[in-house]
Design brief:
Distance between the termini: 32 Å
Radius of gyration: 15 Å
Helix content: under 10%
Order of helices and strands: EEEEEEEEEEE
GO cellular component, one term: cytosol
Number of helices: 0
Strand content: 35-45%
CATH topology: Metal Binding Protein, Guanine Nucleotide Exchange Factor, Chain A
InterPro entries: Mss4 (IPR007515), Mss4-like_sf (IPR011057), Mss4/transl-control_tumour (IPR011323)
Pfam families: Mss4
Shape: globular
Largest sheet: 6 strands, antiparallel
GO molecular function: guanyl-nucleotide exchange factor activity; zinc ion binding
Keywords: Guanine-nucleotide releasing factor, Protein transport, Transport
Strand order of the largest sheet: 3-6-10-9-8-7
């Protein structure tokens, strides 16, 4: 991992951990409790959450990707509260909300057992439970 200095003091605590609980942007399902993940700044490409259909052929889908640089690094998949995983694609699984299947929210690498949850794909707030 490289670049673990949090650039956004509003979401990180003094140790670089998530200061707030992490929720799905679509259904508000709790994904991760506070102080369970570390900030990392690495480049990861994720498909956009909306799949575009070609104007020429309604059956032809174009999958556009987005390069994201700010993520929560989660060491163990059992740290997540509610996380779904896609089928494996090249030793990688996409992370999706377990409640509404919105995503991809990040990546899980099978061989290293590392998960990266993209900050821009989730919401943050104090967990009132």
């Amino acid at each position: 991992m490289s670049g673990n200095e949090c650039l956004n003091d509003e979401v990180c605590d003094e140790s670089g951990k998530n200061a707030f609980a992490v929720f799905c942007k679509r259904c508000n399902c709790l994904i991760l409790r506070e102080k369970q993940a570390s900030f990392v700044a690495i480049q990861i490409e994720l498909p956009l959450s909306e799949v575009k259909t070609s104007a020429n052929n309604a059956n032809e889908q174009q999958i556009d990707k987005e390069s994201l640089n700010e993520h929560w690094y989660v060491e163990n998949i059992y740290t997540f509260e509610n996380m779904g995983f896609s089928n494996t694609v090249n030793d990688t699984k996409y992370l999706v909300c377990a409640e509404c299947e919105y995503g991809p929210l990040g990546l899980h690498y099978i061989k290293s057992n590392q998960s990266y949850l993209s900050l821009s794909r989730v919401a943050f707030r104090k967990n009132e439970n």
